[in-house]
Amino acid sequence: MPARWTILAPAAAGAAAFVIPDNRTRRGLLVGTAVAHLALTLYAFRAPSRAIFEGALLLDDPGRLFLLATSVLFIAAAFYSAGYLKREASGTRPDMVEGRLFSNSPEARFTGCLLLFLAAMSFVCLAQNLGLLWVGVEATTLASAPLVYFHRHHRSLEATWKYLLLCSVGIALALFGTYMLALSGGGEVSLGLPALMAAGPTLNPVLLKAAFVFLLVGYGTKMGLAPMHTWLPDVYSESPSVVALLSTSLLNVSFLAILRVRQVLCAAGQAQFGNDLLVFLGLTSMGWAAIFLLRQTDYKRLLAYSSVEHMGILAFGAGIGGAGMFGALLHLFAHGVAKGAMFLLAGNVLAAYMTKNVSGVRGLVRALPYSGPLWVAGVLALVGMPPFGAFVSELTILRSALAGGRYTLAGIFLLLLSVAFIGITTACLRMAQGNRAAAAAATPAEAAATAKPMREHWSAVLPPLALLACALLLGLFHPARLAEVMVSAARITGGF
C-alpha cells in the first residue's frame, strides 16, 4: 500500500544510512528515497486509501495535501543536500563569525536523521489517532535536533538546546491537552479521530475548550506562532539552509495537528471558540513578525521571522473559515515552496559572501548570475506579488474576511501584510542591488570572497528554481485533482 510505504521507506533508508560506510552511496540513497517518496505520494494522492492498524493510520484528503507539500520540499532538499555535503570541507575550519575552529557532525548522522525526519512527518500526515499524532510530532523533534547541530560550534549548540527545551515544553502541553481531550469523553471515548467526532455533542464542553487551548499552545510552539516562536530565529540562523527548508515542513505538519483537534471542536459545536483563538494568534504572529522584519540585519533570521508571519497567515485564514480555510491550505503550498527556495538561495549567498549580514551583501544579481535573479524572484513570491501563488492565497483569505463582514480584521490583516512587505523587500532587494565593493569593505575575508563571481553548481541552483516554478504555477493554474483535494480538505477541517 503506497501510504504505508511513505513511512516505512524513509524509516528503513534512515536506519541504513547510519551503517553505510561510503558517503557517495549514502547521498545516492538520500536522493533515491526522496524520489521514491514523491512517487508514492503522487500515487497515493489519486488512489483510494485504506485504513491501517484498525483505522489508526489513514491518508484522508488533509493528510494527502500535507504529505504532498512535505514530499515536494524534501525532494528539493535531497538534491541540494547531495551537492552541499559533497562541497562541505572535512575536518576543522575557522568559523566565519568568530574565527574559532569547529567541525561538522558525521555525514551518516546528518543523512540518517534527514530520512528519519521525513518518516516522522509522513507518520503525522497519516495519523488518525490523536495519541499517535502526538507521538509523531514528538518524533519530528528528536529526529531534527541533530540536524540543527550539524555545524558543531557554540551558537548551533545553543540553538539546538533552545529548540529542544521550548519544543519539549510545547509538546508536554500538547500531551496534557490530549489527556484532557480524553477526559472530556469521560474516559470512554478513544482518541481516534472518527470516534471523537462521533461523540462530539456528548463531550464535556469545558474540558474540550481547555484541551484545545493546551493543544493550540503546544502544537503552536512547534508551528512557530508568536509568542511561542522564540526557538525559530536561532534555529534558522545557525542550522544549514537545507535544515531550515525542512523546518518549513515541520511547521506545516504542526499546523495539521492543530487542524485535527479543530475537527473535534467543530463536531462538538464549539467551532467559534477555536476560530476566535486562531484569528487572535494569527494576527499576533503577523504583528510580532512585522516589528522584527522592519529592522532585521541578518537575512537568515529575516527569513525566520517571515515564517512566523506566514504561520500567522495560516492561522488567520483557518480562523476566518469558509473560503479562508481554502486560502490557508493554498498558502501552505505557496509559502512552502517560496520559502524553501529562499532558504536554499540564502545558503548560496552565504557560501559566496561568507556573511549573514544584510549590509555585507551587495550586487547579488551580478555576483551570482543564477542565484541572484532567483533571489529577486523568490522575494516577490514570498511577499505575495502577482502572479505567484501567495498573492492568490492571501487575496482569497482577505476576500473571505470581507465577505463575512469582518472589516476590521481584514484591515488589520492588510496592514500587517503591508508592513511585512516593506521589511522584507527593503532588506532583500538591497542585497540584490548595489556595489559589491562596498559590501566587501567590512573585512579582508569578505573582500576576497566577493572578488569575483562564484561558479554555481547545478545542485545549488536547480532545486530553488524548481520550487519557484511551483510557486509560479500555483498562481497561474491549479491542477484539477489538487484543487479537488484542497476543497475537500478545507471542508473536512471545518472550513465550509
Question: How would you portray this structure in words?
Answer:
75% of the residues lie in helices and 2% in strands. It has 496 residues and is mainly α. The protein has a domain at 281-496. It has a 3-stranded antiparallel beta sheet with strand order 1-2-3, with helices on one face. Strand 1 (93-94) and strand 2 (101-104) form a beta hairpin. The protein starts with a helix and ends with a helix.
List its traits.
496 residues, 3-stranded antiparallel beta sheet, single chain, 21 helices
Q: Can you summarize this structure?
A:
This protein has helices at residues 2-17, 23-46, 61-87, 107-126, 130-148, 154-184, 193-198, 205-223, 231-238, 241-267, 271-294, 299-320, 323-353, 364-367, 371-382, 389-403, 407-432, 436-439, 444-449, 458-476, 480-492; strands spanning 93-94, 101-104, 151-152. The protein has 496 residues and is mainly alpha-helical. The longest helix is centred in the middle third of the chain and has 31 residues, at 154-184.
Percent in helix: over 70%
| Overall average pLDDT | 91
Number of strands: 3
Uncertain ranges: 442-451
Strand order in space, largest sheet? 1-2-3
Structural class computed from helices and strand pairing: mainly alpha
Secondary structure blueprint with pairings:
Layout: H1 2-17, H2 23-46, H3 61-87, E1 93-94, E2 101-104, H4 107-126, H5 130-148, E3 151-152, H6 154-184, H7 193-198, H8 205-223, H9 231-238, H10 241-267, H11 271-294, H12 299-320, H13 323-353, H14 364-367, H15 371-382, H16 389-403, H17 407-432, H18 436-439, H19 444-449, H20 458-476, H21 480-492
Antiparallel strand pairs: 1-2, 2-3
Helix pairs in contact: 1-2, 1-4, 2-3, 2-4, 3-4, 3-10, 3-13, 3-20, 3-21, 4-5, 4-10, 5-6, 5-10, 6-8, 6-9, 8-10, 9-12, 10-11, 10-12, 10-13, 11-12, 11-17, 12-13, 12-16, 12-17, 13-15, 13-16, 13-20, 13-21, 15-17, 15-20, 16-17, 16-20
